[in-house]
# Entry
Amino acid sequence: MSDIYIPGVNSRFNTQQTIDDLMKLERVPRDRAADNVTKLQAQKTYWQDVGSRMSTLRDNARALFSYQNPFNDRIVNSSDDSVLTGTAVREAVEQERSFVIKQTAKADRFLSNPLDENYKVDAGTYTFTVGKTVVSFSFRGGNLREFTDAINRRGQDKLQASVVAVKPGTLSLLLESRVTGADNRLILSDAAESLGMAVGMTEPSYDSRVNIDGTYTANAGQKAAIQLPNINADPNLILKFDTSTVVRPSDNWVVPQPPAGPSIPSPGSVSYGGIVIENEPSAVTMPPWNPPEPPKRVDNMSVLSLSFSDGTSIQMPPIIDSTNPSSYQFKLSDLPPGKTLVSINIANNNTNRDVSLRNVQIFDPQSTGGSRPLNAVSTAQNAVVLMDGIEIERATNNIDDLIPGLTLNLKAPSDRPVNIQVEPDRDGIKNSIITFVANYNKLMAEINILTRTDPKVIDELTYLTKDESDEYKNRLGAFQADTTLNQFRGLMQRTVTSPYPTSMDRDLALLSQIGIGADVGRAGASTGYDASRLRGYLEIDEKALDNAIATKTDAVRELFGSDTNGDMLVDNGIAFNLDAMTRPYVETGGLITLKTGTVDSRISQEQTRIANMDTQLTAKEAQLKTQYAQMESAYNRMESMTQSLNNFSQQNSNNGR
# Structure
């Protein structure tokens, strides 16, 4: 029985393989077009990467001469960051100042005695005053946590409350003013005052303030005393006053003239017969005149003392020279116990200095109206700072109105001077320049790889990973014949090696003079020929760069961008010129866009060709399948007829027997 042919299922002559072989030959032009699309897509990626690196370099260049350039940034260095720090804006002037932090600003913080954790706060109207802000609300009664929640909902940024488990099974109520400064005292009123006394937070107080008006002056060589009402050394009291001085010039001393000598009476005369004979005048010989020496200048700032009722006294710390009033505070708890203070004394033994004292006050700083805290965690006070000997007082620890452009952040009091220095952000300048050089070299490496076929240009880049190195090998020489990148590379090299004279330092004009160049890393060494040195890469001598930034900051700034015509706009410099030369390549519609657009057009054309060839190949394959199917069908019919004839012939032979 003959085989049965079923199209698409089996083939007597391996028709499908024959068709596949024929179609493989037919697809050669189509495969070549697809490979070309892949290459074009890779080229587009290469152009996009070059454009991205150009844009990055341009951004780095602009950052070195634009308004936000790092040369105008300022940093603040403190000799003791634990005491004083600072921040400065770009407009701050370079300067150095000395500060003594006598005290930092604080806010009132009151703590109650330990209370039972189930302590109930009575209902009532609770009023709290912080400076000029009044927080008042009605509380319906509840436990401590409910009470603190009620305060915090209404306290906003002025008042805060919390509970602290000082001892197991107990809670203490903590009230905190959130505003520092002596004028922002925390005062409890209405039910809050009663609660404060009930929980051991406050106690009744009486106003013990003493104010002595007037100014007391002791001129050079004089004394003065300020009488006080008898005041015992109460540990809660503070003595406060202001002092000022006037220093007189030393040339006010007048040299005394020599004495005139004794007065000698007239010697008289004798008269006889109308003749008068005058006696010879008496003569007195004066000793030689030696003018006295000018008085020795005395400068002594320890001119204040305190006197007590028992006749004893103690010397107070030295004051400072200042025509403006300087404030001083002393805790009476520091005085000897059992003493009664009766006066403040000025003993001015200076020869050229007048000393004045005014605004004498004795007060309890913790007293807030009719009560005072029993467990004050901190007491509201102003920050007191000496700047170059001038005393400044502020309600906050962040002082931004003392020096233009500078904000001081007070951390802790200290008797030792702390120096604050405002200077350029040299680390920021250095990092910006290093980033600029790094991206310059990356762009140069990209261009070298795309325009050259020597594998050494990749091997020289020791910082590449293996995957990056393999990727760059695929790009090697991809744009070897392209003049655009070769011209750009030449422009880059000329830009960074050209001189740019600076007005701040006539001797500084080249990038290599600040430690950046093609061969600065081997200065003074005999290196011979090195092809990698000719590929346009820049090196950095960090020591030379650090020295240039430290000593010639303004000149380095001009090297990257300067105004040569006085119109307040940068018009020259390495960074300025790199920005200008890069702009036509990376701007919208620029050369990189044109390159990628051309590649896109070619890709589109090739894809159209591929689509047309795919249609033709599909039709060709269908035609071959039809033809081979017809051939096999005809062959099967012929085979069937042959078999029929053979059967007929065999039958006739059998009948003839």
